[in-house]
C-alpha cells in the first residue's frame, strides 16, 4: 500500500474530533489520527499537503 493510499484510509476512518488538527494554514489542518508518527498531512490527490510541525504554531490550534 502506498503512503497516499494509507493516508486516504486514515482520513476516511478518522473523525474530526479524533484528528490531529496541527495547523498548516487557516485552510489546511492535519487530518491524520491524533498522536500519529511522521509528518502531518491534509487534502486529497494532487492537492495533498505534507508538513513537519512548525514551532511557531501551537498544536491543536483549531480544537
Taking the sheet with the most strands, its summary is:
2 strands, antiparallel
**Spans of 5+ residues with little confidence (pLDDT < 50)?**
none
* Total domain modules: 1
Radius of gyration: 11 Å
Q: Termini separation (Å)?
A: 31 Å
What this model shows, in words?
This protein is an alpha+beta fold. The chain has one domain. It is built from 1 helix and 4 strands. The strands form 2 sheets. A two-stranded antiparallel sheet has the order 1-2. A two-stranded antiparallel ribbon has the order 3-4. A hairpin with a 2-residue loop joins strand 1 and strand 2 (28-29). The protein is globular and about 35 Å long.
List its traits.
63 residues; alpha+beta; two-stranded antiparallel ribbon; 1 helix; 4 strands; globular
Give a short synopsis of this structure.
17% of the residues lie in helices and 17% in strands. With 63 residues, it is an alpha+beta fold.
SSE arrangement:
Elements: H1 3-13, E1 23-25, E2 28-29, E3 40-42, E4 49-51
Antiparallel strand pairs: 1-2, 3-4
Amino acid at each position: 500500500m502506498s503512503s497516499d493510499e494509507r493516508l486516504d484510509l486514515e482520513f476516511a476512518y478518522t473523525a474530526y474530533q479524533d484528528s490531529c488538527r496541527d495547523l498548516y494554514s487557516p485552510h489546511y489542518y492535519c487530518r491524520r489520527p491524533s498522536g500519529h508518527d511522521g509528518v502531518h498531512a491534509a487534502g486529497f490527490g494532487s492537492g495533498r499537503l505534507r508538513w513537519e510541525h512548525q514551532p511557531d504554531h501551537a498544536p491543536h490550534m483549531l480544537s
